[in-house]
Amino acid sequence: MNQLSSTSDETGSWVAPRAGAAQGTVLLLGSSLTIMGAVMIAPVLPKIAAEFVPANPAVAGLVPLVATGPALAIALCAPLAGWLADRVGRKMLLLLATLVYGIVGAAPALLNDLGAILVCRLALGAAEACVMTCCTTLIGDYWQGEMRVRYINRQIVTIGIVGTAFFVIGGAAGEHSWRYPFYLYLLPLLLVPGIAGLLWEPLRASRPSTLDQGPPSSPGQALVLTLCAGYLLVCCGMICAFVVPVQMPQLMIDIGEHSSTKIGTASGIGLLATLAGSISWPWLRERIGRRRVNAVQLSLLAIGLALLSRAHSVEAILVAVVIHGLGAGMLVPNALLPLMHTLSQRMRGRGLGGFTAALYFGQFVSPIVVLACLHALGGLRPAIAAVAACAGLVALLWLTASLRARNDK
Predict the structure, then answer these.
(1) CA pair distance 394, 388, nearest whole angstrom
(2) What are the φ/ψ torsions at residue 15 (nearest 5 degrees)?
(3) Which residue, among 33, 49, 156, has the nearest Cα to 104 in the 3D structure?
(4) pLDDT tens profile 348-380
(5) What's the per-residue H, E or C state across the chain?
(6) Do the Cβ atoms of 281 and 330 come closer than 8 Å?
(7) I want to staple 101 with a disulfide (CB 3.0 to 4.6 A). Which of 95, 127, 134, 154 is the partner?
(8) What are phi and psi of 48, to 5 degrees?
């Protein structure tokens, strides 16, 4: 049965097909493109530095931006991507962005100038902003109720699995040359036929679905408060979440562990813990409510960071990384869910574009926040402890709010 065959109701209006596993697979794989952009290049950064810095030491500061630049581009471009998704349609924007992703993602493999490579990485981030915003928005458009909740969680789980896999694949591809991992960015072009043939544009419908009325077109106070709470939660949460992957290798070196294999293993364990947190999120949400889940995941982040700041052995670091990862895995789906339920179809792209921007802005500023605390407090461990204390304070505020709320859904 062709799920995309056009149908009309008695008034002649176009009626959207019913979304199923095929559409879900395309959107879940599309959502994972952002994590591919982040993890595949990290293992080869030293080789990129060795290629370009000796001949021109002035470009040494550009090397880290090859890895972090896309996150900044996502943060800056996601609001525009959300506006475009609402204005020109989700499907067309997703199709074009995926094509751009594959082209500019693989281009550095053929370039011999670090500045040009950085430009391509920033363009990749702009494409990622469109892809992530459109995929998340289409999940909200295609499904409602508990199916929407399931696909939000599947999105986070898929991102975790793909991220873990391509962290290993990117490292293996870069063993012989730093250029090889960039060719992997051509793989998402395989999604283009699925996007073109399996997805449809929900904004074509002449009448809003009775299952997705949402709020009125003009944002009310309740909608503004929901958006602000979601944006602040995910931004602050990502600042805490990215402390471990960025700062944990230095802590292991500080205690005398220089093995890249053990450092990589610790990072992998952290990714698996994050995946476990994502998987456990629906079960926990059903039992204690969304607001209390916010308190739990922020508490886990705070505890993990506090333990990390006091860890002086590999075993102690691993315990901290696991506790922290469990909390990090619950963050995005629990912050995203109320926005998905509150935003109307006509405003969903803009609202979720802002969410994507807040998420990646938190990732980008996390090292900057830690660096500022480091200079103020005189060391990396006190800086991490300060971030843990802030996370604990916010967790307490969320717990107080959940106890005062009568209807915690």
Answers:
(1) 10
(2) -115, 130
(3) 33
(4) 999 999 999 999 999 888 888 998 999 999 999
(5) CCCCCCEECCCCCEECCCCCHHHHHHHHHHHCHHHHHHHCCHHHHHHHHHHHCCCCHHHHHHHHHHHHHHHHHHHHHHHHHHHHHHHCCHHHHHHHHHHHHHHHHHHHHHCCCHHHHHHHHHHHHHHHHHHHHHHHHHHHHHCCHHHHHHHHHHHHHHHHHHHHHHHHHHHHHCCCCCCHHHHHHHHHHHHHHHHHHHCCCHHHCCCCCCCCCCCCCCCCHHHHHHHHHHHHHHHHHHHHHCHHHHHHHHHHHHCCCCCHHHHHHHHHHHHHHHHHHHHHHHHHHHHHCHHHHHHHHHHHHHHHHHHHHCCCCHHHHHHHHHHHHHHHHHHHHHHHHHHHHHCCCCCHHHHHHHHHHHHHHHHHHHHHHHHHHHHHHCCHHHHHHHHHHHHHHHHHHHHHHHHHCCCCC
(6) yes
(7) 127
(8) -65, -40
* Bridge partner list, 15: 7
**Could you tell me if residue 199 is left (phi over 0), alpha (psi between -120 and 50 degrees) or otherwise beta?**
beta
Structure tokens at 241: 């979440």
CB-hemisphere CA count at 13 Å for 400?
6
Q: How confident is the model at residue 408 (pLDDT cuts 50, 70, 90)?
A: very low
Amino acid at 288: I
Q: How confident is the model at residue 15 (pLDDT cuts 50, 70, 90)?
A: low
**Contact status, residue 332 vs residue 234, Cβ threshold 8 Å:** yes
Task: Determine the Cα–Cα distance for residues 328 and 322; give it in Å rounded to an integer.
Answer: 10
Paired strand residues for 8? 14
Nearest to 240 by CA among 357, 367, 337: 367
Between 260 and 303, name the one with better pLDDT: 303
Hey, what amino acid is at 282?
Answer: P
